[in-house]
Amino acid sequence: MKKQENKKTVQEMEAPVVNLKVNLDRVDTEPKKERPMGREYPKSRSQMPESQLFEFAEYHAQDAEKIAYSNYSYWKSVWANFLKKKPAVIMSIVFILLFIFTFVASAIGKYDINMAPDPLNRMYISPNAEYWFGTNAIGQDYWAQVWYATRASILLAVLVSIGQISVGVIIGLIWGYVRKLDRFFTELYNLIDNVPTIIYMTLIALMVGKTMLTMGIAMVGFGWLATARNVRNLVFMYRDREYNLASRCLGTGLGRILFRNIFPYLVSVIILRLALAIPGTIAYETTLTYLGLMDIMVPSLGNLLSAARAVFPRAAYTLWFPAAIVSIITITFYLVGNAFSDACDPRNHV
Predict the structure, then answer these.
(1) 66-87 pLDDT, tens digit each
(2) What's the rounded Cα separation, in Å, for the pair 141 and 292?
(3) Which three-class secondary structure state does DSSP give residue 141?
(4) What are phi and psi of 130, to 5 degrees?
(5) Which of 150, 261, 319, 345 has the most CB atoms around it within 10 Å of its CB?
């Protein structure tokens, strides 16, 4: 019994023999052809050959620049930030309308600026239906005088302020960047600044003339000092920064470094100084007129204010109208200048 059981276990343990005969007629002995490049297996990427999974990417310079492209615009951002300052926007609109009205007032007024004087019959007539702003000391219509003086003073103040700021910025950039010229401009600054400006203006008025053009050029010639000094100190801060050193190493010209690398950082300061210089010029023109250093034949706000001081108790309206216009101009440029200066600061841009 044991021998029969052992024979069965041995037979069960023996593995079956498999016949592995190969029919050589059915075997494809030809080499497989390489598949062409392309997306032949769009649904089963796991079965794609390596030559199709990895390809060289093409490079285009224009497409590469578009990757880092931004819709940001500096001046658009400045304008958007300025519009957020509602008081400044309102006052700027008021000033624009005021300046436009100086041209319209002469057309709607009843009398011209060249109205013949009549000090006996029309001297110091209070405002009424005939003379809207009254009359002056020689019987002329004060309405025409005030608006003509406003237009003349605004034009003078804007032109003189632009001239002062332009000269001051150019000299300040060169003064602060070119170290060899620092001593020369410092001595020139000390020479002009240590003598009161009113002395220079008096000499020019007595030697050259008291016309508005002459005194305007003189105000530009001596009014650039403060702007140049301020710009020079700011240029010291940016002169030796890394991008300026790199520009010098690459051979960039002086003018390009000053006006492309440094000038944009000074825009907010320049705008603020320009806005404050306009009412300051009107106030300075008033002082020169009061001292007799400007031609009183051309009506200006300074002339009207100077003449109104002597007759204020008798004809107070001669002071009210020009003083109100000067106050509007001063407040307007103060608010607009500060708001636009903040808007020009890149740190306030989102």
Answers:
(1) 665 567 777 788 888 888 889 9
(2) 23
(3) strand
(4) -85, -45
(5) 150
